Sequence to fold (163 residues):
Amino acid sequence: MRITSLVECSTRIMVRLASLQPGATLSAEKLSDLENVSRDYVDQILQRLRKGGLVASTRGAQGGYSLAKASSAISIGELVRAVEGQVFEEVCERYSSGEHECRHMSNCGIRPVWLRLGEMIEGFLDKVTLDQLTVPEPRAFAATMAFIKDFEKEGRIQHDKRR
Fold:
């Protein structure tokens, strides 16, 4: 899985907005300056985030952008879907239409691996919330490790005992 610049910049913008005081906004121009990203790119990102229901815009002299809901209610999975359309591209779906056809769809040992990996990535990103990214790195890391421990308890992650 590749984290695109679109996802990275969108996440940084959302963390920036999550760090604002209640009722405060930031203009697209200010976000562009703070994140060192072109204004056009910020506008494109904000449009996708607004369409996804994650940011709200306010007009006027004191206008700008803010989160549309609490940072604790916005998952990184939701953010990724708002800007990319999906979190994990299903490899086998690439062959479901067009002139290329996967000849291994029946009795394929690889497909379950990709499906499970996609579920794990989506599950992880759906449990990480924006407010967890506004804290210092050690606390964010602790939240990540808690998620992994939950996966282990559920039997979703199994370690190779031979190592």
Q: What stands out?
A: The longest strand covers residues 55-58. The radius of gyration is 19 Å. The chain has one domain: 5-89+105-153. Residues 159-163 have pLDDT under 50 and may be disordered.
